[in-house]
Amino acid sequence: MGITGKIKQISASTLELLKEDPLLVEVFRDARWLPESALWQRAPYWKGESAEKTKQEVRARFGKLPNSQGLSRFIPGNRKQWKKTYDWQLLEQQFITEWENPELDLHKYWQELTFLLAGYVPGYYAKSQGKIPELILDKGYEKDFLPFLVIENSAWDGMPLVNAFGAGTEIGDENETGYGPIRYLSPGDEVGQILDGLLELSQEGFQNRFIRESQKSEPIPWIDWSEEEMLDWMTDYYNEIVDYYQSAVRQHKALLLYLT
Fold first, then answer.
1. CA distance 205 to 209
2. By the 8 A CB rule, do 141 and 150 touch?
3. Which of 38, 29, 18, 73 is closest to 177 using CA atoms?
4. Is the pLDDT of residue 94 over 80?
């Protein structure tokens, strides 16, 4: 199936919990697989022994962070031990409630979408940025995604570069799949800035950007320009991203962005 990109709405209160103790990030992700999670009602294709085994494995380990890591540890630079004890029953219900609202699944197209929205291919920006001066970074930058929200009036085509999947502040360690840390966008200003950029770009601007690149003698190789329906697929994803960001702004939600 390959690596897939996901965007997940969460409440401001849950984001603050994850920021306070980043080891809860994986606990939060585990909660979606608990037997009581709404995910199982949305995933009728996953049944049988494998599904039941996953439910029971997550139930067995949920709420069992080692004392040396999540429940009792030293604050850097402080000799006093900081003890954190959770009400796991309340925490479980809070996290399960968050998963009632599903992720936005970009499937394997997160690279193509990042290029069409933000002007670069994750991990290959040195090769993909072409002549976009706003994307030129100092030597030594080694992360897959570039650190900006929106760049107005880009030198690429005069339209905004919108880092709708690549933006965000890293939180926690490498996730369980090994595809890098989860990133977050704070509710309000950060999520709103990207939504404004998406709307400024517009569906028409997004499609024109695709068409111009496809008509080059040597278009960027990360998109299958020979696929007749590719433009329609990318447009559908653009509109889904806009809708998801609009919903987050209306509900004053934060966003998590990650690979699985």
1. 6
2. no
3. 29
4. yes
Distance of CA 27 to the CA centre of its chain: 17
Q: What is the CA radius of gyration of the chain?
A: 20
Model pLDDT for residues 162-205, shown as the tens digit of each residue: 999 999 999 876 655 567 889 999 999 999 999 999 999 999 99
Distance CA 167, CA 165 (A): 6
CATH H-level superfamily of 5-15+102-259:
YfbM-like super family (3.40.1760.10)
> Which amino acid does the sequence have at 10?
I
User: Cα separation of 29 and 166, whole Å?
Assistant: 20
CA dihedral for 239, 203, 108, 253, sign (positive or negative): negative
Name residue 147's amino acid. Answer: P
Distance, in Å, from the CA atom of 120 to the CA atom of 124, rounded to the nearest integer, reads 7
The more confidently predicted of residues 64 and 147 is 147
Helix axes 189-214, 230-250, angle to 10 degrees: 170
Q: What's this model's pTM, rounded to 2 decimal places?
A: 0.88
pLDDT band at 89 (very low <50, low <70, confident <90, very high): confident
